[in-house]
TrEMBL record:
The keyword Cell inner membrane does not apply. This is LysR family transcriptional regulator. Pfam families: HTH_1, LysR_substrate. Belongs to the LysR transcriptional regulatory family. Residues 36-93 form the HTH lysR-type domain. GO terms for molecular function: DNA-binding transcription factor activity; sequence-specific DNA binding.
Length: 310
């Protein structure tokens, strides 16, 4: 029966029987605006990749409670259970896995947006490159003038330190690393082998009996650590440093036998000792997937590959 015809019948009934009619309106649906904090999504992505509160907090340089609070807030806002807490590990639920995939896409798009804005606002584009001091001093710095002549519109911002810069927090566009990163969204290219050996000043070897040799330890943990600990197990350690330039200076001052990359040890005043004991590491160029196609970042990466590859 047509609704108009029904209404006519009801009105007639009202007139005849004094029936009071009320108009029933559909209940208005509430539309709640979901005000998500983008940084909560960033916390979520890192938690997936790190799997523990401790590792995530260390990567973000915040307290454990901050990470936990952000994750709980995101779950509440989304009304979705993202993680199963098993012991100290946070493992994705099925819903969490689906949202992680979307969060990675969102993260990529935001970074592309920021990169596009920065590129359009700057006459000269900054490209941030992080590398260990030894690589900067011995291998990259001799080529800085050539780089500037070839790419006058790129301002190279070189961060030379022993800490590993976070590619996800945009602490670097490109990194030269002696340790292979494990994140799946990083593009890694092996550049060359790095050889390390024991070197001493010629006068030190000449004037000091081998039984009295002092050794200089390298105080940075890395792939070399087990090998180096074994080498120094029965040696007398007289000095420890975390910078190869400092170690080279100590060897030059005849403080002892130093463990140096060949780029620092190949001096006319140095002698290589224990010549069969050589550690071989690898140097890698690392970029985040979302910046690898930015032209000026690509230009810097290609230049570094050109000067550093074997």
């Amino acid at each position: 029966m047509h609704i108009t015809h029904c209404l006519r019948i009801l009105k007639a009934l009202k007139l005849q029987n004094n029936v009071h009619l009320c108009t029933i309106k559909p209940k208005e649906q509430r539309r709640e605006t979901m005000n998500l904090d983008w940084s909560d999504i960033h916390y979520f992505v890192l938690m997936v990749e790190k799997q523990t509160l401790k590792a995530t907090a260390e990567a973000l340089q915040v307290e454990h409670s901050t990470v936990s609070r952000r994750i709980e807030r995101l779950e509440k806002q989304l009304n979705v259970h993202l993680f199963d807490r098993i012991n100290k590990r946070y493992l994705l639920t099925a819903d969490g896995q689906r949202l992680y995939t979307e969060a990675k896409k969102l993260q990529f798009n935001v970074r592309q947006f920021v990169q596009a804005a920065q590129d359009s606002l700057q006459e000269m584009t900054n490209v941030l490159v992080s590398m260990p001091p030894m690589i900067a001093h011995a291998l990259v710095s001799p080529h800085l003038a050539a780089f500037q002549q070839r790419f006058p519109a790129i301002r190279l911002v070189l961060s030379s330190n022993t800490a590993i810069s976070s590619m996800h927090q945009r602490q670097a566009d490109i990194a030269l690393r002696l340790v292979v990163p494990q994140q799946n969204d990083l593009v890694v290219r092996r550049l060359r082998d790095m050889q390390y050996g024991w070197f001493a000043h010629a006068d030190y070897v000449k004037n000091t009996p081998e039984s009295q040799w002092q050794y200089i330890d390298f105080g940075v943990t890395g792939p070399h650590t087990p090998w180096l600990n074994k080498q120094l197990a029965d040696k007398s350690i007289g000095f420890v440093c975390n910078d190869f330039a400092v170690m080279q200076s100590a060897v030059m001052q005849k403080l002892g036998i130093g463990w140096l990359p060949f780029e620092y040890g190949n001096s006319s005043e140095f002698i290589q000792v224990h010549t069969s004991e050589i550690f071989i590491g690898q140097l890698h160029l690392v970029m985040h997937e979302d910046v690898r196609h930015a032209q000026k970042v690509r230009d810097v990466a290609d230049f570094l590959i050109e000067i550093l590859r074997e």
